[in-house]
Specification:
The complex is a heterodimer of chains A (355) and B (237). Chain A is an alpha/beta fold. Chain A contains eleven helices and 14 strands. Chain A is 32% helix and 30% strand. Chain B has a single domain, classed as Orthogonal Bundle (MetI-like fold). Chain B is 77% helix and 0% strand. Chain B starts with a helix and ends in a 9-residue tail after the last helix. The chains are: A alpha/beta (355), B mainly alpha (237). The interface between A and B is medium-sized, with 30 and 24 residues. Bound molecules: adenosine-5'-triphosphate (ATP) and magnesium ion (MG).
């Protein structure tokens, strides 16, 4: 179990006027991460995520507060004990940070070498790990010959070499495309399941947390503003910071959220485009739009939809093409009138991509 | 003057000197350069490492005053012109070699002149190592010594090789100057024949050989540096 207790980290920085100032990157942060969990820590850039994760393995010494790992106070360890401890709390990074002049196999051997494992034993273990991360043919390759996703796999293998209890991931997928991100997250989840390693994932991407994490903490300007199970926190974000993360467009009213590329040209050109905004309306088992079409007898066209279900609520917007003139539009409006979480407005026709 | 310099007799004489004196001179220049650079690396390497690891925020910070002292000493040694340094280190040379004249004796001032320079070059190479890689090693429990030995030095090998090449060519240039205090080699020939006896053709030949030697060292260094670098993806074989 990882317990972070009242952690504060203060940096001294040179202010604009050239004077020494202090800056609190973390303010009184407390978190508990249970064994075997995949715990997400999410926040905007500069929120203090990296600082927090670096405090866990004491790469950064906290100014105040404690980090307990299975009851061991990390701050009280001597340099030597700390180095020993770090073998069981390993880390992967956004930039992979592989040794560029070593082969992949030797990169994975590196932490074993540090702890004095015999070469033959290290090579055997490294080969197994290459297998685990799905790159058995890359033993002799150098990192520069690998793609980003492959480099991250090697970094993961390297992090697993010393059989750690905890894996810290600082923006481990931020430099990767969505497909590769997905594959790496899958691998992390596999490892978590098979080896029972506790994983802490630092990210600024909601989708990463949604995909693999069981629990999440939201960090904003150095403060933890919300913690809990992912579904819970994301379905009912209480803090402003959480809402901003869940709805990146929240600054604008949902009515103004942009449709990428303008209104699509699909559908009948005589249809009247109408925008439907869902701001947390309850989903039902029925397909809402289809049901409306059946009930009103208006054969609406879905031109564009960007909705997200969080828990049992729908967020996002949708663009409908409504045939039958303004009269039909009024009837559609009336149909949804009793749900205050759905807003309807006419979308400008000249927005259409083909116009 | 030019016609005398390139006259048939001058040429014949120069060729005779080339045959009888240049092989030894070339050899002397070569071993003085290599030995002096080697000793300069032995002294300069640890110093260069300390300059990087010992600073505030380095992997093994040293007291600020000590870093200050190191930096001042290095800067002082580097700012003394080599000609003067040769004379200044006479006592040290006598202590180590037993005499202040001769080819072997000329190695001492060369080392003293070159090691602070080498320290700075090594410092530069080690600073190029991606700090994130060092942090990754720390996160895996590497000790400061392991970081230097297993991360910083191996990761900067290509840069170290090209910087050592710069050191070799610089020492080669200095070694030519040591002809003045009786050091052997191509420098001695250039000074003895060219400066004292106006045999410019001999001097010209010595200079050309020095240039060739620099070219050889430089080409070898560049080749080794490039071919040791595993960051290059598609090197033509
Ligand atoms: N060594 C340092 N000295 C001074 N300020 C620092 C230092 N390290 C971090 N900070 C400051 O602390 C704040 C948090 O930085 P941190 O790197 O933890 O952010 P982050 O949440 O990881 O951001 P990102 O998503 O961009 O990586 C930033 O404002 C940063 O400028
Ligand atoms: Mg960060």
């Amino acid at each position: 179990m990882i317990e972070i207790q009242n952690l504060t980290k203060t940096f001294s920085v040179v202010g604009e006027d050239g004077k020494q100032e202090t800056f609190d990157a973390l303010k009184n942060v407390s978190l508990t991460v249970g064994d075997g969990e995949i715990y997400g820590i999410i926040g905007m850039s500069g929120a203090g995520k990296s600082t927090l994760v670096r405090c866990i393995n004491m790469l950064e010494r906290p100014t105040e507060g404690k980090v307990l790992i299975d009851g061991t106070d990390m701050g009280s360890l001597s340099e030597k004990e700390l180095r020993q401890m770090r073998r069981s709390i390993t880390m992967i990074f956004q930039g992979f940070n592989l040794l560029m002049q070593r082969t992949c196999l030797d990169n994975i051997c590196f932490p074993l070498e540090l702890s004095g494992v015999k070469r033959t034993e290290a090579v055997r273990r490294a080969s197994e790990l290459l297998e685990t991360v799905g790159l058995p043919d890359k033993a002799k390759a150098y990192p520069a010959q690998l793609s980003g996703g492959q480099q991250q796999r090697i970094a993961i293998a390297r992090a697993l070499a010393t059989q750690p209890k905890v894996l810290l991931c600082d923006e481990a997928t931020s430099a990767l495309d969505p497909n590769t991100t997905h594959a790496i997250l899958e691998l992390i989840r596999d490892i978590n399941k098979k080896l029972g390693i506790t994983v802490i994932i630092i990210t600024h991407q909601m989708s990463v947390v949604e995909e693999v994490c069981s629990h999440v903490a939201i960090l904003d300007h150095g403060c933890v503003v919300e913690t809990g199970e992912v579904a819970e926190v994301f379905s009912a974000p209480k803090s402003d910071a959480a809402r901003r993360l869940v709805f990146p467009d929240a600054d604008k009213s949902p009515m103004e959220a942009e449709i990428p590329g303008g209104i699509p040209a699909a559908g009948n050109p005589d249809d009247i485009p109408v925008r439907l905004v869902f701001d947390g309306s309850h989903t039902t088992d029925r397909a809402m739009i289809t049901q409306m079409a059946i009930d009103t007898g208006i054969a609406v066209n879905i031109l564009y939809a960007s909705t997200r279900c969080i828990g049992d609520k729908v967020f996002g917007n949708m663009l409908l093409g409504i045939p039958g003139g303004m009269e039909a539009v009024e009837r559609v409006k009336a149909y949804f009138a009793d749900d205050p979480q759905i807003m309807i407005e006419p979308a400008a026709k000249e927005d259409r991509a083909d116009a | 003057m030019l016609d005398r310099m390139f006259s048939a007799e001058a040429l014949e004489e120069a060729l005779w000197i080339l045959k009888n004196e240049f092989p030894l001179a070339l050899w002397e220049t070569f071993y003085v350069t290599v030995l002096a650079t080697l000793f300069a690396i032995i002294l300069g390497m640890p110093l260069g490492v300390l300059l990087v690891t010992g600073e505030k925020g380095g992997v093994r910070p040293l007291p600020a005053w000590l870093m200050q002292v190191l930096n001042v000493v290095i800067n002082l040694l580097r700012s003394v012109p080599f000609l003067i340094l040769m004379i200044l280190v006479f006592p040290l040379t006598r202590l180590i070699v037993g005499t202040t004249v001769g080819t072997v004796a000329s190695i001492v001032p060369l080392v003293i002149a070159a090691f602070p320079f080498v320290a700075r070059l090594i410092e530069g190479s080690l600073r190029e190592v991606n700090p994130n890689i060092i942090e990754a090693a720390q996160s895996m429990g590497a000790s400061p010594f392991q970081i230097v030995w297993k991360v910083m030095i191996p990761e900067s090998v290509p840069s170290l090789i090209s910087n050592v090449t710069i050191a070799v060519t610089t020492v080669l240039g200095y070694s030519a100057m040591s002809g003045i205090i009786g050091g052997g080699g191509l420098g001695k020939i250039a000074i003895n024949y060219g400066y004292y006896r106006y045999k410019y053709l001999v001097m010209l030949m010595a200079v050309i050989l020095l240039i060739l030697l620099v070219q050889v060292f430089q080409s070898l260094g560049t080749y080794l540096s490039v071919h040791s670098d595993k960051r290059i993806r598609n090197r033509k074989k």
